[in-house]
Amino acid sequence: MPYITPPSKSVGSPLGAADWNSYVKGNQDWLYQQSAQRHGCTIRRNVTQSFAGGGLVTPVAWNFNVEDTDGYHSTISNTQNIVIPSHLGGIYAITWYWQHLGIGANQGQMIIRKQGISIARTVYAPPLCTMTIVYPFNGGEHFDCAVYNGAATGSDVSVSAPGSEAPYTPVLYCYKVG
Prior knowledge:
The structure is a single chain. The protein is mainly beta. Helix content is 9%, strand content 39%. It has one domain: Jelly Rolls. It contains one helix and twelve strands, in the order αββββββββββββ. Strands 4-1-12-6-9 form a five-stranded antiparallel sheet, with no helix packed on it. Strands 3, 5, 7, 8 and 10 form a five-stranded antiparallel sheet that branches. Strands 2-11 form a two-stranded antiparallel ribbon.
């Protein structure tokens, strides 16, 4: 898929499914496929996962490896962690996105945590949520992607599984860029 120049959007304009697929997801796919000798992974959550309300932070338990060049992710143990191989420390581009329908605007956050400590967080407005960072990692360090649900206790939210609100299944791209 070639890079597609996105159209101009005004602040607050919604991003529909066609725009999302063409200009966000498609261009991320294109970006991460540019190096024939790339190192990294593309992983998904392909079954629904719930995130409890009441101000809890819960990591996404990724369960399906689309691509994993060097053993960054295990689908058997510590499925929330992406571990940088010991010989591949460097600068990484990380993008993750998901869709949910359960938390109101400004009640939730997407968080990336390195060794359990937040390195990036953003307040999101449902239903389409995306986050991209470029960050240095040493070999052997790990990170996870977590969801903060600030809604009231009992106001659980679920990330979508394929077939429900596809194509917004939670996806994580992590590739070495330097």
